[in-house]
DNA sequence: TTGAAAGCGCTAACAA
DNA sequence: TTGTTAGCGCTTTCAA
């Protein structure tokens, strides 16, 4: 059996008795082709099992259907939800997603932007506002729409959709105070820019209320995890045993803190209030259920794609170019302190 | 300011006073170019900020540096770890990864394989052995190496790396019996082929030991989650209140089961033994710590890429084309029953 | 070691 | 509505 060559546009054209460009049009904008040609062409495509060559089409048209997505982590549940939102919105379109993982390194991010741009993507989605200067430069001159996600506040390169991390931390701090906790601490891991912003505002609110105690601020540069949450609470309780509540900068830290509390026979919420961040599915199913800040992760992904597609189809058509999707506090048992 | 066109190979060639092909060679195989030319070309590339156009190179060479990765889920922590392994192995090479999400649909998977093949990928990684017939056909004639991952047993289309799900379930069942549990149940969600295989073997082992009771087999087609774990345990204990142990087909089910046990004031491991599957980071940090079956998820991703790259560089060079990385049971407090 | 010529498979621009 | 022509930016082939 002959090693059969993949069929090309020309093969389809000669089989259906039309020109190559008519075949191309049948595929890309069938309404511009007479029904007669269309049917012939479609039959030929079917018969040959023709699929267009993406490289050739990209080269000739100077553009692709690739949407580049740059995230700092693939293991963080937060970005898993963003991915779901992105894929959900892209699924019914002709675009497809290519993921880059910068591993929380601005330099790696810059390199990845360069790689993405080599393929002339239709659009780019990048996490955060903390690109290097060269990276920002690349994004500005990318020649395609760009959406920055997961944060809100600073002016975007092109468009942005996210939420305020300062507002989130304020909600958490006020909630703990309103619940009557007077010696609140905070656990934070990884210390990326968004985490730092939450940490700082939490401190501020505590300071305003006169309850800030730096012994209760415990951080680590390591990635956040349940194990790290346990360790950080341990450290916190060593430094300040009378701590009565803790804002965990991530839900996995919160779960770890809860487990460590169990182990120490500390009662949650009586002895220790716990508030998480992100409101992952697990938090509501812990025992006791965990109070957390709900973040619109899935929506961020969806919305980013929608903005991108609108802008690709009609440049400068997107009016709202900087979108705050907001956060909310979901109060549950872990802070429901009996008065 | 002129909207500057992206520099091309020809631009670099004329600036450095050599031909386009010499520039191309300087980039792809610098050892074939005289040092003199090389230096001139590199200077010109630097000066112009030239980066090769991927579409043009793909079209001319009939191949790309894309490694396609097809997973059934992006939110499942299991695949997050596989992704990490894949990215880890790819990072230092000239290849890059493109992810497709089939959402546990064989038809969607088939469509995605078609999309991937249009770009003439350098290699393909797909989860499982349960492709549709047309999909298998596509993979066989893909014209690039293919690695099937996450399972072991059936003959692969080309290559495979994974582990035995039957062996895993056998380990779990025997462990529960050895710990002295006599009324074991099983919780399972999603019911993909690998889950079903674990379920079946668990049943078999229980039957052999004379302790199989179908009231203790509780499943759901829904995706697995902590909340679902709670619900399934609730259902199990309604149907068979005297159940004394449970094998959870996923760690999040196990965590949910643990939480539900806490809520009911059931003591783990005394009243109820719990064994999970996958050994995610959380399990060892629960309280009590959860026994689980450790699966080599990260290694599967890494190894798949290594096999792929070896095969791309030198076809038919990979000797071991069907690799079982094995599983192991990590016994922890959740099954440590006092005799 | 270097280069000239041809062409990968498609689409843009224009013409009929 | 359809077709012709030219070319996207690179690599392959072959020759020098």
Characterization of the model:
2 copies of one chain form a homodimer. Chain A is built from 13 helices and 12 strands. With 339 residues, chain A is an alpha/beta fold. In chain A, helix 1 (9-16) crosses helix 2 (20-28) and helix 10 crosses helix 11 (251-263). Chain A starts with 8 loop residues before the first helix and ends in a 9-residue tail after the last strand. Chain A is 45% helix and 16% strand. The model of chain A has no long low-confidence stretch (mean pLDDT 94). Chain A folds into 3 domains: 9-52, no CATH class; 66-163 and 297-325, Response regulator (Rossmann fold, 3-Layer(aba) Sandwich), CATH 3.40.50; 165-294, Response regulator (Rossmann fold, 3-Layer(aba) Sandwich). At the A-B interface, helix 4, helix 5, strand 2, helix 6 and helix 10 of A face helix 4, helix 5, strand 2, helix 6 and helix 10 of B. The first copy, chain A, binds a DNA duplex (16 and 16 nucleotides) through residues 8-10, 18-22, 24-25, 28, 32-34, 37, 52-53, 55-62.
């Amino acid at each position: 059996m002959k090693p059969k060559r993949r069929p090309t546009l020309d093969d389809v054209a000669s089989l259906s008795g039309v020109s190559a460009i008519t075949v191309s049009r049948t595929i890309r904008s069938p309404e511009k082709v007479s029904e007669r040609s269309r049917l012939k062409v479609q039959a030929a495509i079917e018969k040959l099992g023709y699929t267009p060559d993406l490289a050739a089409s990209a080269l000739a048209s100077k553009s692709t259907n690739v949407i580049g997505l740059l995230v700092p982590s693939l293991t963080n549940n937060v970005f898993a939800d963003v991915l779901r939102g992105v894929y959900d919105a892209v699924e019914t379109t002709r675009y497809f997603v290519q993921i880059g993982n910068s591993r929380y390194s601005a330099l790696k991010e810059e390199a990845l932007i360069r790689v993405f741009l080599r393929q002339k993507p239709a659009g780019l989605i990048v996490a955060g506002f903390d690109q290097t200067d060269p990276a920002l430069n690349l994004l500005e001159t990318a020649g395609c729409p760009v959406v920055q996600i997961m944060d809100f506040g600073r002016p975007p390169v092109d468009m942005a959709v996210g939420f305020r991390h300062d507002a989130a931390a304020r909600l958490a701090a006020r909630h703990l105070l309103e619940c009557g906790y007077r010696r609140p601490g905070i656990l934070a891991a990884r210390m990326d820019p968004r985490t730092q912003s939450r940490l700082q505002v939490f401190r501020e609110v505590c300071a305003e209320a006169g309850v800030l105690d730096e012994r209760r601020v415990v951080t680590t540069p390591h990635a956040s995890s349940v194990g790290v949450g346990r360790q950080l609470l341990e450290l916190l309780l060593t430094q300040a045993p009378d701590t009565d509540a803790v804002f965990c900068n991530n839900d996995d830290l919160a779960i770890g803190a809860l487990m460590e509390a169990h182990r120490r026979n500390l009662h949650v919420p009586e002895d220790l209030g716990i508030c998480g961040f992100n409101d992952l599915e697990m938090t509501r199913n812990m025992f006791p259920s965990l109070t957390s800040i709900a973040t619109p992760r899935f929506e961020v992904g969806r919305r980013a794609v929608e903005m991108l597609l609108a802008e690709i189809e009609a440049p400068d058509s997107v009016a709202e170019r900087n979108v705050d999707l907001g956060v909310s506090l979901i109060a549950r048992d872990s802070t429901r302190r009996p008065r």
